[in-house]
Each structure stands twice: as structure tokens, then as C-alpha cells.
Write a structure and sequence with these properties.
About 5% of the residues lie in helices and about 25% in strands. It binds iron/sulfur cluster. Iron/sulfur cluster binds next to loops.
Length: about 110
């Protein structure tokens, strides 16, 4: 449980905006007891998956990688996260939110909505 969290019910300007996959993610700083300072809260796509209109999964660079991981160069070991994967597409350099462009992980939107 985070202590000192700012009241998110109040309308306030986001501390950061990241655009990815046709979406705009509005991010807010919140105090984190563990590191004892404010940190940006990112969506938890591993716990609550979200997809683009084309059915591609949103991921953060820190999300755990999967077996479809594509190394930046042949033979490189799996980094363990999505951030170094060749399928991870960010619209802005070093943006932490991006889209996984691997076709194997793309879902058929209509099937999922049934
Ligand atoms: S970006 Fe996609 S393919 Fe790459 S490790 Fe993450 S989930 Fe897997």
C-alpha cells in the first residue's frame, strides 16, 4: 500500500503523457514507500492486458519478456524484458510504453470481444 498517495479523484494535469499505438497514456507521480520518493505510475499490462485497435498488446519496457523475444542482434541472449526486444515499438525514444509488434502475439479483436 502506498502511503501519501495524491488524491487521484481531483482533476489534475498529468505529470507525463506517453503516446503509443493510437492511445495517449496520462501518467501521474505518486509517493512510493519503498524508494521514498515520487514515482510515475505506469499501467500494469501484465495484470491488465490492453491492446491497440489492431489487436497488438501494449507493453512497458520493464514488462517481462516472452519466448517470442527477438534479440537486437543474432545470438544475443534474452534480456528478460520487453525493452530490448526487436518487436517492441516506441513512438518516442526511450518511452517506457510501447506496442509489441510480434504477429504471434496479436489477437483477433473480434474473437476477444465475443
Ligand atoms: S515485446 Fe512482445 S515479443 Fe518481445 S518480449 Fe515483449 S511480449 Fe515478447
Amino acid at each position: 500500500m502506498r502511503k501519501g498517495a495524491k488524491d487521484m479523484s481531483e482533476q489534475r494535469e498529468p505529470d507525463k503523457i506517453i503516446r503509443a499505438g493510437g492511445r495517449e497514456f496520462r501518467l501521474y507521480l505518486e509517493y512510493d514507500d519503498l524508494v521514498e520518493h515520487d514515482v510515475l505510475l505506469y499501467p500494469d499490462f501484465e495484470e491488465h492486458p490492453e491492446h491497440t485497435d489492431e489487436g497488438r498488446p501494449f507493453r512497458t519496457a520493464a514488462d517481462k519478456g516472452c519466448p517470442q523475444y527477438k534479440p537486437e542482434a543474432p545470438g544475443q541472449p534474452h534480456s528478460g524484458d520487453c525493452g530490448c526486444c526487436g518487436w517492441f515499438y516506441r513512438e518516442e525514444p526511450l518511452a517506457i510504453i510501447g506496442v509489441c509488434m510480434c504477429d504471434a502475439l496479436r489477437r483477433e479483436q473480434k474473437e476477444e470481444e465475443k
